[in-house]
Amino acid sequence: MEVKDSNGNILNEGDSVTVIKSLKVKGMSNDIKQGTAVKNIRLTDDPKAIEGKVNGTVLVLKTEFLKKKS
């Protein structure tokens, strides 16, 4: 199963990604701002989602809002 970011780059376990659009998250007081780095991602069973730690909280993020860091 290939997991791809918004640009079509293949994502792997442990990659770092950047959020390309500000996102509102239910249950969090702050939004995830555009440009926020998510390091050391983990892949899920869903090819359109990854797990990552943002501001100390582990979240599942859709890959359509992420860009792989080079």
Polypeptide structure, described:
It is a single chain. By secondary structure, the chain is an all-beta fold. The protein is built from no helices and eight strands. The strands form three sheets. The chain has a three-stranded antiparallel sheet with strand order 4-3-8, with no helix packed on it. It is globular and about 35 Å long. It starts with a strand and ends with a strand.
Note the main sheet: 3 strands, antiparallel
Task: Compute the separation of the termini in Å.
Answer: 22 Å
- Please tally the β strands and state the result: 8
Strand content: 35-45%
What's the overall geometry?
globular
The average pLDDT value, as a whole number, equals 94
Which percent range fits the helix content? Answer: under 10%
Order of the strands making up the biggest sheet:
4-3-8
Q: How many H/I helical runs? A: 0
Gyration radius from CA atoms, angstroms: 11 Å
Protein structure class:
mainly beta
Low-confidence stretches: none
* Order of helical and strand elements: EEEEEEEE
